[in-house]
Amino acid sequence: MNQCNSVVKTPPKISKLRHLRTLSLFVVGSKPGCGLAELHSLNLGGALRIRGLNNVPSEWDAKQANLIGKKELNILHLSWDGSANSKSSNVSVERVLEALEPPSTLKSFEMNGYEGKQLSSWMRSSIVLRDLVKVKLWNCENCEELPPFGKLPHLKRLELSGMKNVKCIDGETYDGAEEKAFPSLEELSVDNLPNLERLLRDERVEMVPHLFELRIERVSNLKCPRLPAVEKLDARGIGEAASFMEVVGNTACLKTLSIEYIKGVVVLPEQFSGLGALQDLYIAYWYDVEYFPEHVLECLTSLRTLSIIYCHKLKSLSEGVRHLACLERLIIYGCPELVVLPSNMSQLTALRVVSISICSTLPDGLQRVPSLRCLEMLEYKSTSLPDWVGDISTLEELSIEYCKELRSLPSSIQRLTNLSRLIIRGCPLLEKRCKRETGEDWQYIKHIPNTELFA
User: Fold this and answer.
1) In angstroms, rounded to a whole number, what is the distance separating the alpha carbons of residues 248 and 283?
2) Nearest alpha carbon to residue 402 among 363, 429, 441
3) 136 pairs with which residues across the strands?
4) Of 107, 132, 157, which residue is a domain's last?
């Protein structure tokens, strides 16, 4: 369905194809034979995407599509996607949407570019929407309230984007202690809902018992109660750190956490200390973070991958790293102030892979990692490597890429007797010195079985 974005029109008089059963895309046109009436008698099933709804001249024309009569339809995508005609028209987009009522057989529904304030009555009907498994609404900027998604028994995936007026996802009331909201929801994504405050207006009931993955982007003040099943949380541009950290604190089963673009956080927040099940932590563009407190790190005992990207003020990981007994991979990218690693890196016995990028020097302390197998360097800014690189005796693979200032390898590299692979890419000065037999540094690397040089 999503592979036809370049199609700008549908051939006219498509209604003459009376035996047509599958039509993945219909673009509404303004010329005769290109309106929604062409769909009226077609017994379409499967997936149908209707674009150009801004060209519908009246509510009556929308009714002529006869979507409700197409009982084999499972997937429906409605799109108002950019025509000047809609700006000057007196056609009510709310009435057009009302007239496009689908059958109750839908499993997936998407809507893009709807400009009305109110949604249709059929979108509030538990009968019409009863079998929905997936819903995606995007760029419906003027919508003030959403359908009662929390009452849909089979809904597993919900994506909402570009709604500036929505304050809660479900504004319905819930009766009885046994009723659950979003009983089957597994994936929830909200993006650019700046005024979103909560999932439910009525939060006295159990909600999202099976929510596995939560994605939040450009949402400033969302508060969530306990999220008992969430294992993956991805957040970007969340604005207010304090309210979001409450969300983090309510995810005791979290295994993967990714947070990008956040201001005002100087130390790794206290809420991280409740994430004992966390295995993968990715933080990027934390503009103010300087320090990872030991008492927070000591609770991350299940952590396997730690990625720290563009945290320009980060100075220390603290001695608390000794508690990261399961850590297997450490990625540090664009953290110029982090020049020394804790003295107890020797206790990270599971750490096998370290990747250091966009740094002025290799952080001192890497040589103390007892089981390091792979060291990756990208865009290293210095002209030379520290001599202690030769002390990483367990190293099996060394990758040096796009380090244009790097002029030579230390002679100590010949002590790396376990090194079986050396990759040098995009390092013009180094490549010349490492050429087989003739390079000045060849004597230091000739014992390595697999040496790969790339321009």
Assistant:
1) 13
2) 429
3) 110, 159
4) 132
Q: CATH no. for residue 321?
A: 3.80.10.10
Residues sharing a CB contact under 8 Å with residue 367, sequence separation 6 or more, in sequence order: 388, 389, 391, 392
Q: pLDDT of 238-259, one tens digit each?
A: 876 777 888 898 998 999 999 9
Is the separation of the CB atoms in 381 and 411 below 8 Å?
no
Does residue 177 sit within a domain? Answer: no
What is the count of structural domains for the chain? 3
Per-position b or e across 307-332, b if 16+ CB within 10 A of its CB: bbbbbeebebbbebbbbbebbbbbbb
* 2, 127: one domain: yes
Strands 353-357 and 329-333: parallel
C-beta atoms surrounding 5 within 10 Å: 9
pTM: 0.90
- Alpha-carbon distance 271 to 293, whole Å? 12
Q: What is the pLDDT of residues 34-63, one digit of tens each?
A: 788 888 888 888 999 999 999 999 999 999
Q: Which two tokens stand for residue 320?
A: 């608390």
Answer yes or no: is 203 within a domain. no
Residue 101 lies in a domain: yes
Residue 312 within any structural domain of the chain: yes
Please state the separation of Cα 439 from the chain's center in Å.
45
Nearest C-alpha neighbor of 320 from the set 288, 346, 344: 344
User: Which candidate, 295, 296, 251, 258, places its Cα nearest to that of 277?
Assistant: 251
Calpha distance 229→151 (Å, rounded) = 19
3-state secondary structure of 437: coil
Dist. CA 91–CA 80, nearest whole Å: 13
Its domain, for residue 386, covers 373-455
Q: Are residues 33 and 128 in the same domain?
A: yes
Asked if 58 and 25 sit in the same domain, the reply is yes
- Cβ-contact 128, 122 below 8 angstroms: yes
62 and 96 in contact (C-beta within 8 Å)?
Answer: yes
- Residue whose tokens read 């200390």: 273
32 and 110 fall within a common domain: yes
Beta bridge partners of 451: 422
